[in-house]
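Sequence design from tokenized structure. All designs in this work follow the same two-part layout: the structure record, then the generated sequence. An example of the structure record is given first.
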């Protein structure tokens, strides 16, 4: 029996992310068209320095979540210690043996780093054509890792980034990424990572990306992992049509391994190749 004077909020007035979690829903996006060729599985994961929601440091759990996903290409954030010798936190040899994933080599802060400002790109089969590291503006030290891959499915550029906590910094960092891309040859491109932006309207710091990576795909809640309400992790594409589906990887292990859930997308590079020339990287 309901206590006198206590009222329950009607479910319809709750924000949609909260309703989805309470109803056990797993939001996803699928393009209206069918892919024209073999699809490539892409994923992004903020591993939270391998500290789970139970406050336990356990790199092996992160590796197991990556194995659950089985990606062809993956971007990781917070894969290095932030201070001191900035040592890498994952067993890259295990990931290569068990998942076939190889880390793209970078000019790191120290010899112990896995990546650039904690950003790591892993890929399964293909070759690295070019690597470019960007220092991003803002109050916090941030960076973006730009890698051109020649995959079996076709050429692909990955921009892996972890944007700042401040809205103004995120806007400046989006501008810096676009400015860097203006100086590079065109190629189908994915911008992926923890973009730290939950706003979707005119106040969103990602709005500047829309001319190059729009229309932006639906935002899927990935944070916090135990009760995901905020779409901080994104995968954006140029041309946008090469993404055929996006979903959050919401497994029992993923909910405890990090405070973020991984996000994964399937892309069709055969569809992207003829459209890339018509979709400039910056307006």
């Amino acid at each position: 029996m309901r206590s006198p004077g206590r009222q329950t909020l009607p479910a319809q007035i709750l924000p949609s992310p909260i309703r989805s979690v309470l109803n056990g829903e797993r939001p996803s996006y699928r393009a209206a068209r069918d892919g024209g060729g073999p699809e490539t599985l892409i994923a992004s994961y903020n591993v939270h320095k391998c500290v789970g929601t139970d406050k336990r440091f356990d790199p092996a759990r992160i590796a197991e979540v990556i194995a659950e996903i089985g990606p062809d290409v993956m971007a990781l954030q917070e894969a290095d210690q932030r201070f001191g010798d900035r040592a890498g936190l994952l067993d890259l040899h295990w990931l290569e043996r068990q998942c076939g994933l190889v880390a793209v080599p970078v000019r790191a802060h120290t010899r112990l780093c896995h990546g650039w400002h904690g950003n790591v790109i892993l890929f399964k089969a293909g070759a690295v054509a070019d690597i470019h590291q960007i220092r991003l503006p803002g109050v916090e030290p941030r960076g973006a890792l730009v890698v051109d891959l020649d995959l079996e499915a076709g050429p692909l550029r990955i921009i892996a980034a972890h944007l700042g906590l401040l809205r103004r910094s995120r806007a400046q960092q989006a501008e810096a990424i676009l400015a860097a891309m203006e100086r590079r040859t065109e190629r189908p491109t994915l911008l992926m990572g923890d973009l730290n932006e939950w706003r979707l309207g005119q106040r969103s710091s990602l709005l500047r990306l829309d001319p190059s990576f729009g229309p932006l795909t639906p935002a899927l809640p990935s944070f916090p992992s135990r009760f995901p309400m905020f779409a901080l992790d994104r995968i954006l594409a140029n041309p946008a049509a090469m993404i055929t589906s996006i979903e959050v990887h919401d497994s029992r292990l993923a909910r405890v391994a990090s405070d973020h859930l991984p996000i994964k997308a399937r892309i069709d590079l055969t569809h992207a190749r003829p459209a890339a020339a018509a979709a400039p990287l910056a307006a």
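The first strand starts at residue 28 and ends at 30. We note this feature because it recurs in several other targets discussed in the main text.
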